[in-house]
UniProtKB/TrEMBL annotation:
<dbReference type="GO" id="GO:0003723">
    <property type="term" value="F:RNA binding"/>
</dbReference>
<keyword id="KW-0808">Transferase</keyword>
<dbReference type="InterPro" id="IPR011006">
    <property type="entry name" value="CheY-like_superfamily"/>
</dbReference>
<dbReference type="GO" id="GO:0016301">
    <property type="term" value="F:kinase activity"/>
</dbReference>
<keyword id="KW-0418">Kinase</keyword>
<dbReference type="InterPro" id="IPR036388">
    <property type="entry name" value="WH-like_DNA-bd_sf"/>
</dbReference>
<dbReference type="GO" id="GO:0000160">
    <property type="term" value="P:phosphorelay signal transduction system"/>
</dbReference>
<feature type="domain" description="Response regulatory">
    <location>
        <begin position="2"/>
        <end position="112"/>
    </location>
</feature>
<dbReference type="Pfam" id="PF03861">
    <property type="entry name" value="ANTAR"/>
</dbReference>
<feature type="domain" description="ANTAR">
    <location>
        <begin position="118"/>
        <end position="179"/>
    </location>
</feature>
<dbReference type="InterPro" id="IPR005561">
    <property type="entry name" value="ANTAR"/>
</dbReference>
<dbReference type="InterPro" id="IPR008327">
    <property type="entry name" value="Sig_transdc_resp-reg_antiterm"/>
</dbReference>
<dbReference type="InterPro" id="IPR001789">
    <property type="entry name" value="Sig_transdc_resp-reg_receiver"/>
</dbReference>
<protein>
    <submittedName>
        <fullName>Histidine kinase</fullName>
    </submittedName>
</protein>
């Protein structure tokens, strides 16, 4: 496991490393501040940010950075609303006044599991949205074929399916091409 601990206080950062003793393989690095280039260069499995209080600049950096890894925050104190901001910035676990070596490993395990689940859900949502858009495109293309070629709905779908098979493309891609060509012929966007 590769862990990047970001904390200006080396003693507090050592508590995180102590909590991970016995994890094999383990590589822990410490940095005083969050710098996206350092995170990308090290490519940790998890980023642990420990601080007295969450820093708005760090939260902004997390929000703007590419979040391809779980982030866990251990803070000594928190103001109202900061936990929500941290979660919106991509923090998988936000722990107030709970940095103790015995708690580090279980919290990181849960955060990494939740992060993986969240990533899977985001992927599923993106696929569902893309499938819905493709379905809408197919419906519009069927409508165009029904109008222009005098086909019924089933005949329009069979034609789209045949075109897709002949071209080795998905029905959605063929439908999008058909609608684009129809737009060109109508003079849309010219």
């Amino acid at each position: 496991m590769r862990v990047l601990v970001i904390d200006p206080d080396a003693a507090r950062a050592a508590l995180v490393a102590q909590g991970l003793e016995g994890v094999q393989p383990l590589e822990v690095r410490h940095a005083a501040v969050y710098i996206e280039a350092e995170v990308v260069a090290f490519a940790p499995d998890v980023v642990v940010i420990a601080a007295e209080s969450p820093d708005r600049d760090t939260l902004d950096s997390l929000r703007e950075s590419s979040q391809g890894r779980p982030v866990v925050m251990f803070v000594d104190r928190s103001e109202p609303g900061l936990a929500e901001q941290a979660v919106r910035a991509g923090v998988a676990a936000y722990v107030v006044d709970g940095l103790a070596p015995g708690r580090v490993r279980p919290i990181l395990d849960v955060a990494m599991s939740r992060f993986a689940l969240t990533q899977q859900l985001r992927g599923d949502l993106a696929k569902a949205k893309a499938d819905l858009e493709a379905r809408k495109t197919v419906e519009r293309a069927k409508g165009l074929l029904m109008k222009e070629r005098g086909l019924d709905e089933d005949g329009a779908y069979r034609l789209l399916r045949k075109l897709a098979m002949d071209r080795g493309k998905s029905i959605g891609a063929v439908a999008a091409d058909l609608l684009a060509f129809a737009g060109v012929l109508r003079g849309d966007g010219a």
